[in-house]
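Comment thread on ticket #2218

A.B. wrote:
> Attaching the input chain for the structure job we discussed in standup.
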Amino acid sequence: MNKDRKLIIAGNWKMNKTVAEAADLIDALLIDLKDVKEIDMVVCPPFTALGEVSKHILSTSIRLGAQNMSQHPSGAYTGEVSAMMLKEFSVRYVILGHSERRQYFNETDALVSVKAHAAHAAALRPIICVGETLEEREKGVTEEIIETQVRGSMDGLDAAKAADTILAYEPVWAIGTGKTASTEQAQEVHAHIRRLLASMYDESTARLVRIQYGGSVKPNNARELMSQPDIDGALVGGASLEARSFAQIIKSCLD
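C.D. wrote:
> Ran it. Output below, let me know if you need it in another format.
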C-alpha cells in the first residue's frame, strides 16, 4: 500500500495467555511473518509474559509493546509497573488510555497525558487510544468527543513528541462486539483527527502522525480499512490471539 507513513499493526492480547501460551503464539507468528519488513509489527502481551516474549523476538522484525504503565518512575504504588521496568524487557511501545482502562479504571485524558509524557521521557512510544461510545455516536457528538480526548491526552506534547506518538481510533461500540465501523466511518474520523492535529501543531506534524484503527479488525476487512488515506494501521484485539488470523491481517495489507 503506497503510503507515506509506514503501516503499524499491533496486537493487544489483553488479559490473555499464560507465559507458555504466549511463547507458543509468538513462535507461530515468527514462522508466519519472518519475511515481513514493510509493516511495523508489534505484540502487546500481559506484563507476566513480557520477559518470555522478549527472548523470542530478539533479532526479529517484531517489536514488543506493553498494555499500560504507571505515570510514576518508582515508589509506593502497589500493583503498578513503571516505564523503566518495561524497558528492561526491551519494550518499545506502550498502549495508553485504552477504552477498557478509561471505562473500568476511570482513567482520564489528563492521566493519559501524564503517562504519555512519562513514556516519551523513557524513550517509549505511546499508542494513545481514543473513541466514542454508541450513545455518543447516536447523539452525533463523535467529533467533539474525539477532539476532547485527543487534545486532553496529548496536552503539553511538543510537535516532535506528537510526531512520535501513535493514535488509535477505537470506537468503543466496535471493540469485541463483532461490529466494525464502516470504511467510510473510520476514514471520516481518522481524517478529522488529522485535521485536528494540524490545528494543534502544523500540517507537516499532522502528516507524520500514524493513526491506527481498532475495533473488530479481521483478516477480511483489514486491507480495505488500511487502504484509506488516513488509516495507518490497526490495533487488533481478539484476532491477535490466534497466530493465523493476526498473520493474515498483516499479510493482507502487503502490496
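A.B. wrote:
> Thanks. Noting for the ticket: The radius of gyration is 17 Å.
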